[in-house]
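thread: overnight batch results

M.L. [08:02]
morning all. the overnight job finished for the chain we discussed friday. pasting input first so we're all looking at the same thing
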Amino acid sequence: SRHTFFLVNGASAGMAAAVMACCGEGDKVLVPRNAHRCVYEGLVLSGAYPVYFQPDYNPQLAVPLSPSRQQVVDLMAREDLQALILVHPTYHGAGCDLDLIREARENNLITIVDEAHGSHFIFDSRLPMSALEAGADIVIHSTHKTLGSMTQTGLLHLGTDCLLYTSPSPR
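M.L. [08:03]
and the structure it wrote out:
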């Protein structure tokens, strides 16, 4: 990452801060239905509105999976959006199609990735790719979930300089 901020209030505080830093009153944000509640806190505090996409679902395991790529790409083309939020991996371990980060960049969207359960991805090539490696603008890790740290340890990474060049839309 270009910059990393240590979070003493955990990844939840980082997710809310990322949304508030990137989105302003009236902005629309693509949000997965399986996002953590801290995303909604960030939306409420920033004044931004969610545009939801539904993750795929595995009925045999009864768990949500990653979203349908086409569903997200269609929403990017149809809506006037400020940002895309992804969950990679989900609480149940399902990874996300990180090519959506490239699609978001092509649509001038900021990507915020809740990688709370994937902070270990960067350490071994046999693991899924990290959202930072895929070019995400902001990635939040919860190190106490998958690495050795005390409770409520979080990291907010800036993968690009997006916050230096963008600000929430004034409305």
